[in-house]
Amino acid sequence: MNDKKPVATPLGVICLFASLTEVFLTVAVTQVTGCTQIALVCFGILFPIAIATAFFVVLWLKPQVFYPPKEFGEMTDPLTYAAAMQGLPVPKGAGSSHWKNEGDDRLITPDDVKDKMGGINGMHKEKLQQAYEEAYLHLLIRGIVTLRQLTVLVQAEQIVGVLRKLYIDELKREPDSSLDPVAVATWGVFFLQNGINPHSLQIVQLQIRQSPEYKTKNV
Description:
Number of domains: 2
Helix content: 55-70%
Shape: elongated
Order of helices and strands: HHHHHHHHHH
Radius of gyration: 24 Å
Oligomer: single chain
Number of helices: 10
Strand content: under 5%
Largest sheet: none
Number of strands: 0
């Protein structure tokens, strides 16, 4: 006897929402007349089209969000699947239910982030202690999932240098403690993925100027 309980999935929730909406809409259309009925009929036609369009857009851009971790199977972990769907390098050993922590291709841990970012010139040591776990989450969200990828990021001297200069100029931070781990995990990865050019520099500069710290120091 199969004792497995049904698991609510993102796809299931979408289907349930769309189905219930159409059922209630069908009932409502039979209870009204005139302009109201016409409006409901038009909505009933356009609503499935909008749902389908949004579904395929998300399916194209972020297919991994439609599946809960249990659906990845025992042979694939969620981070490996997400990395593959984003076109990022898949760590060696993917497909094994027992991940081998070997070399630079193993998945990063919060301690890896703390250790690697601690070697960045200009890293604020106290902020690193306070926010390395938050930085770890930002890295995973942005596709930095292996030790090799993290190493490439922290050793990108041009990116670190540009980011340090931005934080010194915009936020008036001290040169020897101008960076924090979340900044590297956010804007360092942004530069790594988009390159350093006038457009990307402007985007990061504008985002920094929206921060409370900037508004406090540049009153």
